[in-house]
Task: inverse folding
């Protein structure tokens, strides 16, 4: 059977001290935990709902009230989101209940009026206590059960041994599923460069902290062990711990047999252990409901202070080694409780990696050997890291300690993401009124601080700001550098797996942060090396020029005109990584070729100019393989010095419309249509459409197209200024050639200078100032050969013979 614990009775303040409490005051009245190990003699493969039910039953029993009667009064059941449901990419190999709160309710005699599935993040348990204590105080609820469970150990064991388990269950009923809420926990740049798993992201923070403290790799490794060594002793005393056993700082920190380096700087024993079967539950009630249910006052624990704060995304933080929101949330909760850190008897800091503890303790003045200990459970690497639910176990332990020593106070500090979301609670048996949250004001103050700009396509000299090397001692180590450019912008870049010089520097004992490097943007990811010569050898710049053939394009030269056809009619000319790279190279060649003066871009067939990103490989892949110059090599190109005409045949949708918007002139077939359907697919317009469309057509119409997916036909597009001409059905290429001929009739110098002047003044809001700035166009044309030829042709009543200079 699972090991199950509930608290023990203890003396508390007399009833006379409780009489003045508002009956809506929230109190914690029951806590429970359950756990299994694969090697337990009585192990059985329980699913999440069954293990969670064990913890809920323990929490109900912990109230010392009639279990069945109390269960029948619970009006709200809230499930912490498990790892199997923590992101859109997660899955449940053996199925799961469709309504976890109600599935656990079925097993425990609870039939809640309201069922909730919480968002992703290790802050969730404490955040839920803060939130639902507020719900109780506001009178919207009187009794709530919070719970979470992980059976990752069971699932992995079954999959490894080819066993089939069936945890699927159809429950139905109301469920407030809050989704994932993982925006900001990672970024496109981190995904592009493989910095997605927490171990890589936390390594970046940890290495930045090491640099700030000026420590060598061996010294810092030992210091990480010192933060965690005391936790092993606590875990050894906790019968729910997944990996008990007392270890020294050196045993934790020094890599070797049984403790391999999984990254720089982490050996395995300093990393959260998620291979667990653990569950925990907390029951909240109003004072009035607790009295009515017969819950003795010695079960009551009050939330004296609480706070929730959100940190900036990792790459936006001014200092990668710090996350000020964490300590700020602790201070806010302590201020609410009218306490200081010194007044706390018990502490539990979320401890997935050493820096998760040290970064906040640094700010609070707490040392690794604080006699109170920094964990009540034993910490995530030793007690266990049951997904998002770890801090529910911490709450259970802190509540039990508060009851055991009435009048003392305990703190739970729960972390989610990459030091991204932080929730704090201060617990004690001393009666306390409910205090409303002050977190909104705190968050406004945090949000007002500065952020660092990120350059997605860096190029040139730079310096290392932080880094990670994953599996440094394996056959295929993977390195990533976070760096700064001379203008202060931050970037992410990958280290070539064969670049032993840079990988060796990053993995060595000396501090590599501050080292000069060179960085270069690539289609899929950026690349970094110690010198430009190394970068040229490993990732040379492609030669500018036209290829003999293209996989997805048809390219034709006709005198001074370049015609480019996206040749993927079977895919409605959608843009994938190959198409984008080829278009980028073709337009590089076009702008560099002095003989070419006008380009026409169109699509093969009559169905589509382009349907945008090719989503066949998934939206993530489509969004990550884009060159620095953007979709089609155009949408992010800073300079288009020669005219590009979009000849829209069929539909121009999503990225296809964004490419057309980046062109200088857009002509369309009579049957053409234009639209941005992204929101209807759960996506967003991200290649310039949100910027260019409202600047091209009336903003209210742009809003309509973006928010509803409304499509315009050619007539509507002409009327609002999205296109300049309509061609007869099937004749758009002929019309585009006519426009190109008209452009060729003018001076190439004047055309280029006019385009440059319009581009330079586009962002100037003052019309008079823009007019004055545009007059500089004459600086170019007045000294050109074309001007003299134009004047001579006019006088001689002949066609000009332009030389283009």
Result:
């Amino acid at each position: 059977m699972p090991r199950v614990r509930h608290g023990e009775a203890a003396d508390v303040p007399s009833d006379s001290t409780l009489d003045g409490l508002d009956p809506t005051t929230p109190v914690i009245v029951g806590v429970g935990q359950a756990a299994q190990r694969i090697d337990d003699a009585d192990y059985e493969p329980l699913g999440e709902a069954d293990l969670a039910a064990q913890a809920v039953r323990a929490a109900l029993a912990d109230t010392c009230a009639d279990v069945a009667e109390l269960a029948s009064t619970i009006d709200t059941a809230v499930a912490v989101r498990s790892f199997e449901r923590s992101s859109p990419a997660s899955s449940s190999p053996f199925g799961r209940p469709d309504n976890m709160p109600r599935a656990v309710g079925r097993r425990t005699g609870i039939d809640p009026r309201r069922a909730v599935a919480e968002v992703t993040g290790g802050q969730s348990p404490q955040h839920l206590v803060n939130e639902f204590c507020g719900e109780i105080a506001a009178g919207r609820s009187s009794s709530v059960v919070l719970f979470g469970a992980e059976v990752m150990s069971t699932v992995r064991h079954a999959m490894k041994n080819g066993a089939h388990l069936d945890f699927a269950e159809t429950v139905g009923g109301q469920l407030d599923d809050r989704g994932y809420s993982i925006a900001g926990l990672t970024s496109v740049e981190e995904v592009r460069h493989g910095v997605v798993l927490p171990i890589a992201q936390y390594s970046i923070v940890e290495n930045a902290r090491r640099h700030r403290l000026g420590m060598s790799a061996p010294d810092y490794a030992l210091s990480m062990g010192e933060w965690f060594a005391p936790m092993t002793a606590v875990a050894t005393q906790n019968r729910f711990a997944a990996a008990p056993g007392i270890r020294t700082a050196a045993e934790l920190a020094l890599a070797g047999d049984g403790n391999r380096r999984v990254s720089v700087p982490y050996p395995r024993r300093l990393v959260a252990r998620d291979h667990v079967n653990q569950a925990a539950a907390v029951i909240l009630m109003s004072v009035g409901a607790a009295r009515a249910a017969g819950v003795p006052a010695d079960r009551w624990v009050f939330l004296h202070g609480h706070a929730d704060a959100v940190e900036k995304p990792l790459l936006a933080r001014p200092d990668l080694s710090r996350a000020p929101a964490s300590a700020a949330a602790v201070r806010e909760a302590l201020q609410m409780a009218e306490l200081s850190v010194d007044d706390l008897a018990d502490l539990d800091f979320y401890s997935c990696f050493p820096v998760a503890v040290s970064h906040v303790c640094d700010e609070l003045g707490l040392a690794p050997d604080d006699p109170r200990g920094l964990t009540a459970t034993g910490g995530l690497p030793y007690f266990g890291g049951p997904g998002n639910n770890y801090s529910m176990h911490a709450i259970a332990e802190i509540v039990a300690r508060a009851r055991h020593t009435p009048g003392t106070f305990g703190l739970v500090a729960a972390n989610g993401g990459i030091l991204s979301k932080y929730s704090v609670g201060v617990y004690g048996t001393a009666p306390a009124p409910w205090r409303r949250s002050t977190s909104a004001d705190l968050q406004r103050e945090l949000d007002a601080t500065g952020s660092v700009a990120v350059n997605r396509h860096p190029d040139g000299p730079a310096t290392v700001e932080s880094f990670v090397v994953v599996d440094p001692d394996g056959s295929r180590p993977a390195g990533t550098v976070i760096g700064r450019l001379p203008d202060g912008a931050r970037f992410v870049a990958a280290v070539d797996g064969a670049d032993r010089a840079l990988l060796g520097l990053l993995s060595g004992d000396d501090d590599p942060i501050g080292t000069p490097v060179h960085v270069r943007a690539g289609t899929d990811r950026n690349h970094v090396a110690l010198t430009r010569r190394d970068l040229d050898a490993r990732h040379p710049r492609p030669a500018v020029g036209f290829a003999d053939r293209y996989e997805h394009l048809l390219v034709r030269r006709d005198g001074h005109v370049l015609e480019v056809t996206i040749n993927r009619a079977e895919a409605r000319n959608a843009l994938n990584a190959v198409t984008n790279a080829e278009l980028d190279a073709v337009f590089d060649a076009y702008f560099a070729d002095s003989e070419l003066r006008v380009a026409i871009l169109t699509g093969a067939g009559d169905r589509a100019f382009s349907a945008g990103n090719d989503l066949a490989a998934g939206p993530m892949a489509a969004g990550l393989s884009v060159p620095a110059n953007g979709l089609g090599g155009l949408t992010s190109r800073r300079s288009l010095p020669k005219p590009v005409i979009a000849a829209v045949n069929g539909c121009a949708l999503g990225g296809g419309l964004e490419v057309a918007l980046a062109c200088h002139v857009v002509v369309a077939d009579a049957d053409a249509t234009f639209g941005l359907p992204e929101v209807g697919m759960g996506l967003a317009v991200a290649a310039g459409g949100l910027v260019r469309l409202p600047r091209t057509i009336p903003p209210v119409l742009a809003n309509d197209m973006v928010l509803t997916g409304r499509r315009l036909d050619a007539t509507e597009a002409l009327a609002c200024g999205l296109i300049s001409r309509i061609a007869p059905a099937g004749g758009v290429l002929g019309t585009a050639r006519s426009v190109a001929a008209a452009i060729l009739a003018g001076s190439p110098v004047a055309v280029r200078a006019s385009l440059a002047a319009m581009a330079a003044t586009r962002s100037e809001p003052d019309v008079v100032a823009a007019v004055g700035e545009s007059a500089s166009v004459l600086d170019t044309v007045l000294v050109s050969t074309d001007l003299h030829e134009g004047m001579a042709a006019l006088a001689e009543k002949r066609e000009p013979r332009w030389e283009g200079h």
